Amino acid sequence: MQIAVIGSGEEWIAQAEEVGRLLGERGCVVVCGGLGEVMEAAARGAKSAGGTTIGILPGESPNEANPWIDYRVATGTGHARNLAVAASCEAAVAVGGKWGTLAEVAFARILGRPVVVLGPGPGAEGEGVEHAATPAEAVQLALDLAERR
Amino acid sequence: MQIAVIGSGEEWIAQAEEVGRLLGERGCVVVCGGLGEVMEAAARGAKSAGGTTIGILPGESPNEANPWIDYRVATGTGHARNLAVAASCEAAVAVGGKWGTLAEVAFARILGRPVVVLGPGPGAEGEGVEHAATPAEAVQLALDLAERR
Amino acid sequence: MQIAVIGSGEEWIAQAEEVGRLLGERGCVVVCGGLGEVMEAAARGAKSAGGTTIGILPGESPNEANPWIDYRVATGTGHARNLAVAASCEAAVAVGGKWGTLAEVAFARILGRPVVVLGPGPGAEGEGVEHAATPAEAVQLALDLAERR
Amino acid sequence: MQIAVIGSGEEWIAQAEEVGRLLGERGCVVVCGGLGEVMEAAARGAKSAGGTTIGILPGESPNEANPWIDYRVATGTGHARNLAVAASCEAAVAVGGKWGTLAEVAFARILGRPVVVLGPGPGAEGEGVEHAATPAEAVQLALDLAERR
Fold first, then answer.
1. What does the H/E/C string look like for chain D?
2. B102-118 as b/e, with b when 16 or more CB fall inside 10 Å?
3. Do A110 and B100 touch (CB under 8 A)?
């Protein structure tokens, strides 16, 4: 099962890494934007648990990916890659995040993917957006919601 | 000056039409997603004031555009056309709206375009997102913010 | 009727300008990639005949457009804007061109738009790709093919 | 190393499968468009040799992928996914193919990726496009060219 970890913000790196680690432990493929901060932490966490990672990049070169990405998709379509991140998952966990994360949450909801927000989140509320207090709770909730789809 | 009108919801049609009309009167080119409801109302309003309209469509055919669109760009990239709507304006007015509008607000802010929200809006708050109580106030504020960029 | 002018190459500027001029005279809206060389020449030609031009840009800013573009759509999706150029026309005239033009011809044909090649062209042959010897012949053929669709 | 297999046409299925098999044997990750015919055959071939496959899909659902795809990226951007296929590889092998393949070859060359054509190919010739007579020759040539970049 492909689960996306989205978000941004240096202060969220530890939580993102823990989310990635737990997803890796559960056998999920972690999908992310492939670049730094939260994306890199989630991928590093997944790899620390023997998991697999996909980075969906905005640019035209796979070499942009952080070192924890196993499979690198360079979309070449800039911020439109946020649509691909949302479309490629069964559920998304948002860790921190601002406008870019908000676009991903919006696309996830347009496409019917459940979103679990850890922390205050990017500010998007509505049906299909749930909140969690810890990485463990976020991962469990995301997997439950993905299976119920 | 190209100003985007974004949003959705039948209950917002009258306000969207008024926003479009006022933008047309002020000599602005109205950019929108080219389809129905708020997009169509904004375009119709602009045309009623002798304005010009651009529709940026998700699909692969210009024929999808509503009848009030003068110039039709079929992006062929689905919801990624929301990025093009945001990138093609100097400022955006959001009238109603849900997840699709939220994606457009997010992209507008990533790209530094000011956004004026009329009504409760899609729920995105932050620097560069202002609120207005009436179509006239929204249009004036959008033009002021666009000029100050 | 929206007709695309695609292509590249300094040596094709005069012919592209003439194609644009003739399209403008015939009342067509000239769609192009909005940047330099053939794109700029076609737009300049259209404006010299009182025509209207749309530039579909790869980047995130309308300011990238050449000065002869009336309506500027910044797609933000890089080379994927070539799909939008092809999808937004009823027919395309290719003037010179290399790999970028080839992508546009390919997309035009996938979407059923006729293509008229002036000069040797980018090398794509097949059903729906016709050749013309002069700008006048190219424009006439493109309009005939667009009407027959 | 990620190598793309592009193309189309029922008559090319056996050759595409052999290309995929040889790439899998060589330890390459096979990148393709994730759908049927040549894409499916290449992925099946790669899996028969214990290889890994990535499908870069045009639609909004990972479920569109053929059963031989390990990692599924749903771009949601229609034919613009051809840009992502080209950008995500170090070299591409084209097996048969028509307009869609031509767009991928064009994007690969814009981005500096070498292309090896097996069979008559989609008709795109130029610097960086080489021809091969057999799947084995095509794979060897693609890997050589990818390494020389």
1. CEEEEEEECHHHHHHHHHHHHHHHHCCCEEEECCCCCHHHHHHHHHHHCCCEEEEEECCCCHHHCCCCCCEEEECCCHHHHHHHHHHCCCEEEEEECCHHHHHHHHHHHHCCCCEEEECCCCCCCCCCEEEECCHHHHHHHHHHHHHHC
2. bbbbbbbbbbebbbbbb
3. yes
> Cβ(D25)–Cβ(D3) under 8 Å?
no
Residue ranges of E strands in A70-139: 71-74, 91-96, 115-118, 129-132
- Which of B75, B84, B87 has the CB atom closest to C87's CB atom? B75
Facing residue for A123 by CB, picked from B79, B110, B124: B124
Tens of pLDDT, residue by residue over A66-77, are 999 999 999 999
Q: How far D77 CA sits from the closest chain B CA (Å)?
A: 4
Output Rg (C-alpha) for chain B, integer angstroms.
13
Distance from CA of B126 to the nearest CA of A (A): 9
| Burial environment of residue B73 by CB neighbours within 10 A (0 to 12, 13 to 18, 19 or more) | buried
Classify A141 in phi/psi space as left (phi over 0), alpha (psi -120 to 50) or beta.
Answer: alpha
Alpha carbons A113 and A146: distance in angstroms, whole number = 8
Cβ burial, residue C65 (10 Å; 0-12/13-18/19+): buried
The Cα D5–Cα D8 span in angstroms is 10
Look at the block and give the residue holding tokens 């996830």.
A108
Give one DSSP letter per residue of B75-99, joined into a string: -SSGGGHHHHHHHT-SEEEEEE--H
> For B124, which of A83, A102, A107 is closest by C-beta distance?
A102
Give the C-alpha separation, D147 to D149, whole Å.
Answer: 5
Look at D80 and A77 and tell me if their CB atoms are within 8 Å. yes
> Tokens in use for C58?
């790869």
Indicate yes or no: CB of C84 within 8 angstroms of CB of B74: yes
Assign A119 a pLDDT band (cuts: 50, 70, 90). Answer: confident
Q: CA of A87, closest CA in chain D: separation in Å?
A: 5
User: Where is B118: in which H helix or E strand?
Assistant: strand B115-118
* pLDDT, tens digit, 9 for 90 and up, residues A102-113: 999 999 999 999
Task: Say whether pTM exceeds 0.90.
Answer: yes
